[in-house]
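Catalogue entry: protein
Contents: sequence, fold tokens
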Amino acid sequence: MKKLIFASLVALILTGCTIVRIDTTNIDNILNVILSKDNTLYNRVGRGYKYYVPRGVTYIDSSGSNDKLYSNGIYYYLYLDEISYYYKKTTNYKVDNSKYYSKKINNNGKSGYLEITKQEDLYLIEFVYNYAKIEALVPEEDINDTVLNCSYILSTIKYNSKIVKLSLEDNFLQNKEDKYNVFSKKNQDNNSFLRYEEEK
């Protein structure tokens, strides 16, 4: 029995299993831990992009480059800025200490900011990162969970350069139209079944 326990402990140590605990009581810690990871997960695919929707968050609807998500009574509005991605524009943001929270983010070549503004009894979260933006209006007790979910979503966004380039071309949304007239005369051969039925 002792040999089995010892072998299990050695196997656990040698495999290098690590568990990362995220302190969700501190916004800075949430940002540092989640945004520093190179997440390749995704479970939502749109036109020219894909990303991971965390457990507890539900995808509701899309309109162009805008996605609407929902979690625990809170709506998340995600905007994917494919134009900035294509032209590799950087975010210019100045920290505003008059806000509830304001931080410029620069991590692994991806830039953005997190700004939280108090609006009466709620807090407006504006999170820009990785050529995308999420906005949500939340009560104070839900700020950290919302920032955690937004961090997962924004850090996992991957763009498909070819599709983004194609979607920015002028003729991408033009449709080809074929005229079809339902009332035009058809070949007599096509109506042979009908003639057969009438003759009976």
